[in-house]
Amino acid sequence: MAIFKNYKSKIAYSIAAGTVLFSLAQFVSPVAAQVNSSDEMNKTQVESSAKRCQFPRHFDSIESVDISPNGKKFISSSRDNTVKLWDVSTGKLLRTFKGTGYSGLLSPNGKILISASRDSTIKLLDVSSGNLLRTLAGHSDSITSLTMSQDNKMLVSSSWDKSIKIWDISTGKLIRRLRGHSEWVNSAIISPDGATVISGSSDKTIKLWDIKTAREIRTLKGNFDGVSSVAISPDGKTLFSGSYDNTIKVWDMATAKEIRTLKGHSGMIESLAISSDGDTLVSGAWDSTVKSWNIKTGQLIRTFGKPIKQSDLSDLLPKNPPGGSLISDTSSVTTAAISPDGNTIISGNSNNIQLWDAKTGKIIRTIEGHSDWFQSVIISPDNKTLVSLNSNNTINIWDKNTGKINRLIKDKWVSSIAISPDGKTIVTGSWDDKPIKLWDVQTGKLIRTFSDSGVNSVAVSPDGTILISASNEIIKLRDINTGKLLHKLEHLFPVSDIAISKNGNRLVSRNIGDEIILWDMQTGKLIRTLKKETVYDNDAIPVTSIAISPDGSTVVSGYLDGTIILQDASTGENIRTLNNQTPGVYSITISPDGNTLVSGSYYDNTIKFWNIRTGKLISTLEAHLYNVSSLAIGSDGKTLVSGSYDNTMKMWDMTNSKLLHTFCSLK
Known about the structure:
The longest helix is centred in the N-terminal third of the chain and has 10 residues. The strands form 14 sheets. Strands 1-2-3-4 form a four-stranded antiparallel β-sheet, with no helix packed on it. It has a four-stranded antiparallel β-sheet with strand order 5-6-7-8, with no helix packed on it. A four-stranded antiparallel β-sheet has the order 9-10-11-12, with no helix packed on it. Helices cover 4% and strands 48% of the residues. The chain has 667 residues and is mainly β. The radius of gyration is 26 Å and the shape is elongated.
């Protein structure tokens, strides 16, 4: 089981680049969770909307699957930071283990769930109760694989920190530390006799280690690229290694010689699994397929799923992407496991799970994940309307009091939305061939368009006269009525985010180089660079979000490690750093009176209220199941709206931190 994809790094890069990671999964059309119209949303309505907007399946890509020893249950581990336990025969969800991480393993006796967490720790949980038994800490980077000995006494973990660690399950103590690889260790397993650890690394080697002495026994080298996954036959005689070069190599353990190479995949090998009888090898790869192989002959038995062709992808890609954009098709990565009796193969692809008949190749069951999310949310100036940008490029205009969708606008590759101060016009920025569009809120009709290269971010000045758009390395300020170019704010790197003070005097920008720059809105001149260190500097922590106080005196920046920094806009000096304690600030916003800062997290999915003057935490809201993608505060400072990758938008009373309503997209 090779977890080559680092969740934190992927989030960091995609946020720094100011892009959205798009999946090829089918999106659903948003509709409101219907509630009865009334002047005040009572408790029954709040509970009704929340209950209707429950989504039990995965929100993000499946990183690993594992089947219980008796073949009756299986687990799926996802980038959404959950592990789910399912019934194989019915496909019914039995339990969700929240906050467990992106990779999971069931112990040989089926009683313990072992998971790799985002914070580089390992969690051991009781499968029947869901209770946390123990947390193992020791790795300094993302954990890539987990393997348990057949006697349930020993756990082996590998990591991007280039090490392999051996743990005592009963005590949680670290027994051995194996070092010798010069690059990431992507996979590590234990031999059937429990005497040897076998590891595969990005340094293009496979190493065999003596568990008792922690010494390296042998290094296997061959004509292959980095090793992504390793597996061993039940009799311990044959070793299999998957590679970045799309091949699987078969090795004789006694002689350490290569027997054959299995070719057939068109993408990197993600996972390898072997049936209990030792007859069948199952491989999952980045070509969106699973393949089964005859171990004795090396012949391909069957291919499960269809590989995604480049021609299929090209039709779905944006026509006008901005510079520095990362477009990722996460649906192409497939991981797989085979049942003990060899009759069922379970694969995870994107956020969907497939159960296959191993003998016929037919799909037994598909468990679809939730593919929609709220990318951005806005509250209209009159506090009567909510506007959301959903992942299917739909802009939804909601009635704030009834929870109903008044209007729906469909566009292509929308990356950003804004609303005019009078609440009559919605502005969208996109990667389409007409990237800037103005829409009438009442009718949903297109008013006008502006040509440009792909746009990452849009905004409207507080007086409603200036349209601001970020495209490539330039921010353009235009007269919103005539389209006349007023100013060009040039950057060294493509711009990802912009924020404007309510008094209309200052603009703050963030680019993919991770610089934060303050500009004079009236003259278009650069005032100062507030953060000069870029993502290309060693040990630089990526910036994930920016905001500016209503009077333009304070600039706030959120960071991937959870840090929130307040800076004096006039001097550039740090005012204070907020003690967030949990990593992963995803979004931030400031109340109209400038007294309260609100932050949303991707790590623990919480929303936090902060006193800007004192830096103290006021309250924490726990309601979302996945990343908090966007935050907006009403002009009266009493209402907060949060959008999330859990397919919900929630409305809160800021005076008492109570949930008022849950909006969602339903099939």
